[in-house]
Amino acid sequence: MPGTNSETGHYKNVANFQGLIHFCESLGTAYQPSRPDMIIPQLKEYYNKAVAIMEQVTNAEIMQSQSRQNRNNLFEDTKKLAARASNTLEIANPASTAIKTSKYYIAKIRGRRLGVVTPGTEATKAEDAPKTRSVSQTSYDATITHFEKLIGAILTEPGYAPNEADITISGLQKRLAELKEVNQETVRVTGQLKLLISQRDQMLYTPMTGLNAVALSVKQYIKVVYGAGSNELRAANMFSFRKVGN
Questions:
Q1: Model pTM?
Q2: DSSP per-residue string spanning the chain
Q3: pLDDT at site 124
């Protein structure tokens, strides 16, 4: 994410590549490599593409951060909404058989354990999530499932008819749709970010053809032209490049 050491390292590589280009330009006609990808115009094209992908990654990171915050806020508010609905159910009919079930799902939505409703029911099956998904994502998916089951439990009580719009059945169903939408949006922007990071890493670190590899070749060329102990090579080596992990 922006501000981390790894992200700073990516930007430093790109900035140093620009510095290396300027240095090569200062060498004038003495810099005339035979490799097409090492000539000044091609180096500038490498640099422009690198800057573009870095900007795309940064924008995608901002979008992901905002999406995650929006999702977190809505899911946190839903805990309160679900509790209000459950309490309203108990007020509507203290003898309702749906109360125990609703409390079970409230506990699940809050992230607590509270026994089981019935072994083998959909309530327990809902917790079985694919292991390939992150723990965080699985938690959001599970919360959506639990909230949907809570609505189903409340629907079994005919006396549930609150005047507060947000906890009516239609209000709860509206919230369910919002949860699904905000969760899916976070999944989407996260996937886009991963794709852009992959493209950035290919641009910067692919062996032989990546920005770092080309920069090394440029330095090697300067070494051949001016010598290992030359001031020109020492100046070129001031622009360092390293592969950075995510």
A1: 0.79
A2: -TTSHHHHHHHHHHHHHHHHHHHHHHTGGG---SSGGGSHHHHHHHHHHHHHHHHHHHHHHHHHHHHHHHHHHHHHHHHHHHHHHHHHHHHH-TT-THHHHHHHHHHHHTT-----SSTTSHHHHTT---TTS-HHHHHHHHHHHHHHHHHHHHHT-TT---SSGGGSHHHHHHHHHHHHHHHHHHHHHHHHHHHHHHHHHHHHH-TTTSHHHHHHHHHHHHHHHH-TT-HHHHHHTTS-------
A3: 35
